[in-house]
């Protein structure tokens, strides 16, 4: 009976250790970023296939189409950062504001462009958001 109890205790301890290891080990799409914490690489994320770059640089035709539900405004700050404001054209959605530091890139994600019925109106704003990526390719927010 003593051997069984000791065996069960060992299995529980080993199982708890394995569970803690699996819980804290980053997944394949995560690596350690500049801050030392586990962060997701943008290129390997679920957002990348649906993203268009909106800062820095001029807006491409694809970016303009993706931003259908928003008015886009940007300005360069004295430190070289870019201040980007996305003002929602629909009152049931929130405007977005980002400060893109030198070396960072801002992408706009339009995961379902087919919902944009016309060039003047976006049928569903829930799938539209911006993602800031640092100079090493990690998602900041």
Give the number of helices.
2
Strand content: 25-35%
Strand order of the largest sheet: 3-7-8
Query: Which structural class should the secondary elements be placed in?
Result: alpha+beta
Give the fraction of residues assigned to helices. 10-25%
Overview of this protein structure:
The chain has 141 residues and is α+β, with helices and mostly antiparallel strands. It has one domain (32-133). It contains two helices and eight strands, in the order αβββαβββββ. The chain has helices at 2-24, 61-66; strands at residues 30-32, 38-40, 51-55, 70-76, 82-88, 96-100, 105-110, 128-133. The radius of gyration is 22 Å and the shape is globular. The termini are far apart. Residues 7-36 and 115-120 have low confidence and may be disordered.
Summarize the structure.
The chain is of the alpha+beta class and 141 residues long. The protein is 21% helix and 30% strand.
Task: Give me some keywords for this one.
141 residues; alpha+beta; three-stranded antiparallel β-sheet; 30% strand; globular
Topology overview:
Elements: H1 2-24, E1 30-32, E2 38-40, E3 51-55, H2 61-66, E4 70-76, E5 82-88, E6 96-100, E7 105-110, E8 128-133
Antiparallel strand pairs: 1-2, 3-7, 4-5, 5-6, 7-8
């Amino acid at each position: 009976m003593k051997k069984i109890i000791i065996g069960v205790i060992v299995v529980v301890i080993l199982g708890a250790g394995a569970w803690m290891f699996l819980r804290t080990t980053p997944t394949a799409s995560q690596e350690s970023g500049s801050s030392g914490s586990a962060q997701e690489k943008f290129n390997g994320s679920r957002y990348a296939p649906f993203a268009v770059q909106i800062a820095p640089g001029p807006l491409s035709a694809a970016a303009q189409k993706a931003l259908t539900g928003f008015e886009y405004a940007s300005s360069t700050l004295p430190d070289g950062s870019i201040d980007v404001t996305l003002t929602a054209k629909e009152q049931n959605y929130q405007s977005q504001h980002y400060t893109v530091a030198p070396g960072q890139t801002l992408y706009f994600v339009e995961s379902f462009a087919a919902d944009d019925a016309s060039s003047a109106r976006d049928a569903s704003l829930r799938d539209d958001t911006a993602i800031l990526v640092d100079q090493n390719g990690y998602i900041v927010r």
